[in-house]
Design goal:
The chain is built from 10 helices and 9 strands. The chain is α/β, with parallel strands linked by helices.
Length: 307
């Protein structure tokens, strides 16, 4: 066999090898996710809490960069960056990860009577317009558990998400959410899919303090300039959908409080400039983060130091 023939053979088999590797990684991720979900639901609460405490300690101890970033972010949000506050954010993150995995096996009544829901009437009124709802939120409290709760109430939820937990587990997390009835839209998907979700009358959830977006625009946030997604305003202008914003705060052990409020009514964004609409959106997000800075799970450096 000639070298040229070997090269041609390699070109033919490389895509197959990559596909097989991807499928294998996906299967491993599914096995790990399913086993962890089964374990999380089988363990007594006190054992699970003890395990979460150990995981929090290890994560905190071996993540000096994350600790530094959290301190800077807390300071930027107006909360004294005390060690206890920083550690508390790591602890909430651990609880969120456990609940994200465990919720894949929860019955719809699992969260019944664990939530206080402020602003449900604002959400229902927005949905009654018939154009879907853009739900703006941020990484505060227990946003993942809040999404599962909204779905358990019968709301049709579509969420934009990139890599979740790790590349190994992202596929398993996506499948678990979709089995619960939550559609996952990735940043690689066409914007038409976002508009389709709204046109169907669903709730499109956007975590606007994340980094899974392209482009964006510079806004003043907590007195500093930062680039943030312009999607909420652009989608509202294109679809006529109202914009609702809020958060899901972790209260005492395994209890939660959802707060929602309307920011823009149906077709209201079209009457505003994009900057005016974003100012309203990020003014609310800034307020929500300030009110819940002790539960703002932001491990990357949020601001780049510009005033």
């Amino acid at each position: 066999m000639h070298v040229r023939d070997l090269c041609q053979s390699c070109r033919l088999t490389a895509p197959s090898a990559a596909r097989i590797l991807g499928q294998t990684v996906g299967r491993i991720g599914t096995i790990v996710f399913s086993a962890t979900a089964a374990l999380a639901n089988a363990l007594p609460a006190f054992v699970l809490d003890a395990a979460a405490g150990v995981c929090t300690f290890l994560h905190y101890s071996f993540s000096p960069g994350k600790r530094r970033n959290v301190r800077e972010n807390l300071s930027g949000a107006g909360l004294p960056p005390r060690a206890g506050a920083v550690y508390g954010i790591f602890r909430i993150h651990t609880a969120n990860v456990i609940e994200m995995i465990a919720s894949s096996r929860w019955r719809t009544d699992r969260l019944e009577n664990r939530f206080d829901f402020e602003g449900r009437e604002a959400l229902d009124a927005a949905l009654a317009c018939g154009k879907g709802v853009i739900l703006v939120t941020q990484h505060t409290g227990s946003w993942e558990t809040g999404a599962v709760y909204l779905r358990s109430l019968g709301y049709r939820l579509h969420v934009v998400a990139g890599v979740q937990l790790s590349p190994l587990l992202t596929g398993a997390v996506k499948r678990a959410k979709e089995e619960l009835g939550i559609e996952v839209i990735t940043p690689e998907d066409s914007s038409r899919r976002l508009l389709k979700a709204l046109a169907s009358g669903g709730i499109l959830a956007l975590l606007v303090d994340g980094d899974v977006y392209t482009g964006g625009t510079e806004v003043v946030f907590f007195g500093k300039t930062v680039r943030l997604p312009d999607g909420p305003a652009r989608l509202a202008r294109a679809s006529g959908a109202p914009v609702v914003a809020g958060y899901c705060r972790r209260a005492r052990s395994r209890r939660y409080r959802i707060h929602l409020e309307r920011l823009l009514g149906a077709d209201e964004a079209a009457a505003l400039s994009e900057s005016e609409a974003l100012e309203r959106v990020y003014g609310a997000v800034e307020r929500f983060i300030r009110e819940n800075a002790d539960q703002w799970i932001m491990f990357r450096r949020f601001w780049d130091g510009r005033e």
